[in-house]
């Protein structure tokens, strides 16, 4: 049987000449009829949800790496040691010409009748001056120029630039040191430094090609090690040359996708996708300040201003750098992000319905009548010597609920919640405090002793002439009604 292509998402067999599924748009994989009748082992996806799954179950939606043409500027940056050697040759010739012109001008300014007196002095100091000048020129080109560009490349994060310059200068310096040492020149003398710099200036010419070749090969190996994988769980980025770096970005942590494509990207169909978790892309930050300083004899005033723009990282291990057909990857990521947002909205809506039905009491049993509430309203009794009778719980609607009877205990202090035990089930239920509102305040029932004491005090006030007989009678009647 011929090979067939199976869609990893919808498991539909399509013509082998096609590269994408016309239904869902996902890439196909070639498969052959399985002659093994043994069942496949069951995979527990919940045991490690962050693990990248195989393509057997369609978890991998896209797998790609950067295009070679997208790394073109990195390859050109690796050739920087060759261009720096050319710059150093021209710079050294210009400096030597300036030195020769300066010496000739200085000699020509001496009068002819003074030449018998100055020739000896010039011959005496010409050799040290020439050596010092040559050392200075060689320190500028090539050592100084290579060091400056290495610092610039390291600061600007141009790895190919600073690695190439450091490698060229390092190989030349080590080899020049070995040759100068074998020459037998004392290391602490000026001749040793001059000989070392001369060998370095000569050795950077062949070693610049060696360093450029090494950096180009390392850059290509780094590009081949990069792998971008989009799964249903998240975005996987893996790669590295000397050490491997791998990290996973869940889809729910991606706020938006920034799409970038330069002129050559539009021609060769490649681009960069930058996943961002924050919404401050392109935000400008400005700093302004006014300062003044001064001493006893001087005074100064200054104004400073600076502005910066926040951007995402374009490092190949931080984004999807230079991938082919970037629109396809953008559509896949956008669909996964939107699907996650839709699921969150559905979950919030579902939880809201649960709250409205269970907590707010909007759930019904189909007849339009709410569920029965087995809430018992407690009663209170006055301390007396009469018999203690069991009282049934009274429901909120005034009806007796269909439940077993329970005894309500006597309460002397209404400010302290009491508990009661059911005579049948033995469960303990707490009697809540009565609600006290401004519209219908709950009046406490005072004991008999406190009422009699108040009547006695009123009688004493009547006998003393403070209140009248009518006032005493009115107050006494009010107190007796409260019993």
Given as residue ranges, the uncertain stretches (5+ residues, pLDDT < 50) are 29-51, 53-57, 365-369, 372-431, 436-443
Average of pLDDT: 74
Number of helices: 9
Secondary-structure content class: alpha+beta
Reported for the largest beta sheet, the result is: 4 strands, antiparallel
Report the oligomer.
single chain
Describe the structure.
This protein has 483 residues and is α+β, with helices and mostly antiparallel strands. Among the domains are: 73-109 and 126-224, no CATH class; 254-277 and 316-362; 448-481. It is built from 9 helices and 14 strands. The strands form 5 sheets. A 4-stranded antiparallel beta sheet has the order 4-5-6-7. A 3-stranded antiparallel beta sheet has the order 2-1-3, with no helix packed on it. A 3-stranded antiparallel beta sheet has the order 8-9-12. Strand 6 and strand 7 form a beta hairpin. Helix 1 (72-78) runs parallel beside helix 4, helix 2 runs antiparallel to helix 3 and helix 2 packs antiparallel against helix 5. Mean pLDDT is 74; it is low at 29-51, 53-57, 365-369, 372-431 and 436-443.
């Amino acid at each position: 049987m011929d090979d067939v292509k199976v869609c990893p998402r919808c498991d539909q067999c399509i013509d082998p000449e096609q590269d994408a599924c016309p239904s869902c748009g996902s890439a196909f994989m070639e498969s052959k009829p399985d002659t093994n009748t043994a069942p496949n082992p069951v995979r527990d996806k919940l045991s490690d949800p962050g693990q990248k799954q195989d393509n057997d179950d369609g978890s991998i939606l896209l797998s790609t790496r950067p295009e070679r043409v997208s790394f073109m500027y990195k390859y050109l940056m690796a050739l920087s040691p060759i261009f720096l050697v050319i710059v150093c040759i021209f710079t050294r010739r210009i400096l030597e010409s300036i030195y020769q012109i300066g010496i000739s001008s200085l000699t020509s300014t001496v009068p002819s009748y003074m030449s018998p007196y100055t020739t000896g002095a010039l011959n005496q100091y010409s050799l040290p001056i020439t050596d010092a000048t040559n050392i200075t020129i060689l320190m500028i080109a090539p050592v100084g120029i290579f060091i400056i560009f290495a610092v610039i490349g390291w600061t600007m994060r141009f790895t190919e630039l600073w690695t190439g310059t450091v490698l060229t200068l390092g190989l030349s310096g080590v080899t020049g040191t070995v040759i100068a040492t074998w020459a037998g020149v004392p290391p602490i003398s000026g001749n040793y430094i001059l000989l070392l710099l001369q060998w370095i200036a000569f050795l950077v010419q062949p070693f610049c090609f060696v360093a450029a070749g090494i950096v180009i090969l390392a850059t290509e190996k780094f590009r081949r090690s990069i792998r971008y994988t989009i799964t249903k769980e998240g975005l996987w980025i893996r790669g590295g040359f000397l050490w491997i770096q791998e990290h996973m970005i869940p889809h729910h942590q991606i706020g938006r996708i920034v799409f970038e494509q330069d002129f050559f990207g539009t021609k060769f169909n490649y681009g960069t996708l930058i996943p961002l978790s924050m919404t401050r892309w392109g935000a400008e930050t400005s700093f302004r300040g006014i300062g003044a300083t001064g001493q006893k004899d001087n005074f100064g005033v200054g104004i400073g201003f600076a502005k910066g723009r926040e951007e995402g990282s374009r490092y190949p291990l931080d984004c999807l750098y230079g991938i082919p057909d970037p629109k396809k990857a953008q559509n896949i990521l956008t669909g996964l992000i939107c699907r996650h947002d839709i699921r969150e909205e559905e979950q919030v809506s579902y939880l809201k319905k649960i709250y409205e039905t269970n907590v707010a009491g909007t759930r019904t049993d189909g007849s339009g009548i709410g569920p029965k509430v087995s809430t018992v309203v407690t009663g209170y009794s006055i301390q007396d010597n009469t018999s203690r009778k069991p009282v049934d719980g009274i429901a909120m609607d005034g009806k007796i609920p269909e439940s077993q009877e329970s005894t309500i205990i006597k309460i002397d202090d209404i400010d302290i919640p009491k508990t009661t035990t059911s005579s049948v089930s033995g469960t303990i239920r707490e009697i809540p405090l009565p609600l006290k509102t401004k519209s219908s305040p709950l009046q406490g029932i005072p004991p008999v002793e406190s009422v009699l004491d108040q009547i006695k005090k009123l009688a004493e006030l009547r006998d003393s002439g403070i209140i009248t007989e009518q006032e005493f009678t009115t107050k006494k009647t009010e107190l007796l009604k409260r019993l």
